[in-house]
Automatic annotation (TrEMBL):
Keyword Protein biosynthesis part of the UniProt annotation: no
NCBIfam families: oligo_HPY (TIGR01727)
Record keywords: ATP-binding, Nucleotide-binding, Transport
Family as reported in the entry's similarity comment: Belongs to the ABC transporter superfamily.
Domain ABC transporter: 4-226
UniProt-listed InterPro entries: AAA+_ATPase (IPR003593), ABC_transp_ATP-bind (IPR050319), ABC_transporter-like_ATP-bd (IPR003439), ABC_transporter-like_CS (IPR017871), Oligopep_ABC_C (IPR013563), P-loop_NTPase (IPR027417)
CDD domains in alphabetical order: ABC_NikE_OppD_transporters
Pfam families found in the cross-reference section: ABC_tran (PF00005), oligo_HPY (PF08352)
Gene Ontology molecular-function annotations: ATP binding
Lineage: superkingdom: Bacteria
Protein's recorded name: ABC transporter ATP-binding protein
UniProt xrefs under Gene3D superfamilies: P-loop containing nucleotide triphosphate hydrolases (3.40.50.300)
Amino acid sequence: MTLLRAERVTLGYGGRPVVHDVSLDIVAGGVGLIGESGSGKTTLARAFLGLLTPMSGNIWYGDQTLKKADMRTFRKDVQPVFQAEALDPRMRIGASVAEALPRAERSRVGELLEQVGLDPELAGRRPHQLSGGQRQRVVIARALAVGPRLLILDEPTSALDVTVQARILDLLAGLDTERLLITHNLAVVERLCRTSHVLFAGRVVESGPTAELLARPAHPYTRALRDAVPRLGGPPPAANGRTEAVPAATGCPYRLRCPLAAPQCERPPALRELAGRQVACHRAEDVLT
Ligand SMILES: Nc1ncnc2c1ncn2[C@@H]1O[C@H](COP(=O)(O)OP(=O)(O)OP(=O)(O)O)[C@@H](O)[C@H]1O
């Protein structure tokens, strides 16, 4: 059974929805959420962590909705990997990792530091005495402390330079923990996620095997992301040079930016099966060719 699943979830703040009717399963092999800033990735991740209650729809944790689940067990199974800046600057990193461990297992700090490729000797240092990559490893060690089944990672490497980024990706790829990864960096999802969901304006516009989505996109937004983003690092994508166009309020939200927009795009496209993935685009056949 899938550990976590969103079923027709709508999420928002102050009664204003920003994620609309999203369904997705966190399946084995890594799941990526891709999309530009403001597309709703972090909002969806917060709902998967039980930090935001859906306005409608459900987050399923096994066979229970998150509302009804035992949160103690949930917190052991599902752990966030925060940005390294979230580490307490006053705390030595050994203490920081120990704090995340169950009381009876506090002696495992050195073992955990080794697991993430850090010298246990570093336990006595404070965060500012480590490199950015080392700090990110400490954050991962903290998340691993309770033995989670799933890690939820929000831009885990975006603050790091390219070579350090690659080593952190190697570390994450080598863990036998499931992962939900949020990023605008396609190289990162390519490395860590067998399945990806592309979000635009709070809606899933394309979902499927990452390799196929990137090799042969069926949605013009996925294609724009692929074509505009450098393979590693770099800024968020420019979509056909028209990133300034706001999502359309009616019809296909992408239509004001889309080079293929046609009269039928004034009707909202439903997600449909095509070429081994799901895509919400009236003109997907023309994108695939
Ligand atoms: N606490 C909040 N209160 C009100 N609106 C919010 C809040 N957090 C996010 N939003 C809005 O929700 C929308 C989605 O934001 P979200 O942070 O989920 O996007 P994102 O894809 O993760 O972006 P980024 O890559 O910049 O983190 C945006 O329009 C944002 O302004």
